[in-house]
């Protein structure tokens, strides 16, 4: 088990991707804190998976501090932090309110900042044991190119990309690696809400037609699963990735590699 003896905290740990990461970490032998707004999260009720649930609003500084204090009291260190919590607003900037803009940045960017800020002292303790600690942020391929109607989301993910590089430079000398995973279309509740939202460009198509259309624009003719993301997260969290830091790892089935006209 690659993560035996390690302690991990996953924000958005009861969401689609977050829950898959939690499950993979548990299988790899880690002690895992699943942090989310509610224990149920965005998926149907689940059986006890062996993780330690922490109620957390990542945009609330006092709540984040309390969560890290809990980890300190119970484990004394934190080897792995995964900043997977995120929200998506399907609007152009003209239609986005200031409150919606601020909320997007509060969760996607400020949340990443706060959890990382208050995890650092615990992660230094982990790094002092002789292996590197690992922070894994969540960007998006939308931080490089843009889907229509996702202006605030794209802006937040570009900010996370830049923050990831800065954190890697600042904290690499302390034995703390920082990377970002940049997913494309992944089969999560967020993706399913996109199919029904204004940003989908549905034009009257059925959900099945929209889902197939999204698969067809990928060179691999499919979109990803939460387990696909969890596989890469697991490697970045492990000591096998000891030399990987400051990178933006795109996982999108080849979508952003192709000349876009070739989709026609």
UniProtKB/TrEMBL annotation:
It comes from the Bacteria. InterPro entries: NAD(P)-bd_dom_sf, Sc_DH/Rdtase_CS, SDR_fam. GO terms for molecular function: oxidoreductase activity. CDD domains: SDR_c. The keyword Transcription regulation does not apply. Keywords: Oxidoreductase. Belongs to the short-chain dehydrogenases/reductases (SDR) family. This is NAD(P)-dependent dehydrogenase, short-chain alcohol dehydrogenase family. The lineage of its organism: Bacteria, Pseudomonadati, Pseudomonadota, Alphaproteobacteria, Rhodobacterales.
């Amino acid at each position: 088990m690659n993560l035996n003896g390690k302690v991990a905290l996953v924000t958005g740990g009861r969401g689609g991707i977050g829950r898959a990461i939690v499950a993979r970490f548990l299988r790899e032998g880690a002690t895992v804190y699943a942090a989310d707004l509610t224990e149920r999260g965005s998926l149907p009720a689940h059986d006890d998976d062996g993780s330690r649930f922490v109620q957390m609003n990542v945009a609330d500084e006092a709540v984040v501090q309390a969560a890290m204090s809990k980890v300190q009291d119970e484990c004394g260190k934190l080897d792995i932090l995964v900043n997977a919590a995120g929200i998506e607003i399907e609007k152009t900037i003209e239609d986005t309110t200031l409150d919606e803009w601020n909320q997007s940045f509060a969760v996607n960017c400020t949340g990443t900042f706060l959890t990382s800020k208050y995890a650092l002292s615990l992660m230094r303790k982990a790094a002092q044991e002789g292996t590197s600690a690992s922070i894994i942020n969540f960007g998006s391929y939308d931080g490089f190119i843009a889907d229509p109607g996702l202006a605030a989301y794209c802006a937040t993910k570009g900010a996370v990309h830049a923050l990831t590089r800065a954190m890697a430079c600042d904290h690499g000398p302390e034995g703390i690696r920082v990377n970002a995973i940049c997913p494309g279309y992944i089969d999560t509740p967020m993706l399913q809400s996109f199919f029904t939202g204004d940003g989908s460009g549905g034009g009257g198509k059925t959900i099945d037609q929209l889902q197939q259309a999204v698969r067809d624009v990928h060179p691999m003719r499919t979109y990803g699963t939460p387990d696909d993301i969890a596989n890469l997260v697991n490697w970045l969290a492990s000591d096998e990735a000891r030399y990987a830091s400051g990178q933006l790892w795109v996982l999108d089935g080849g979508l952003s590699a192709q000349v876009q006209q070739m989709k026609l």
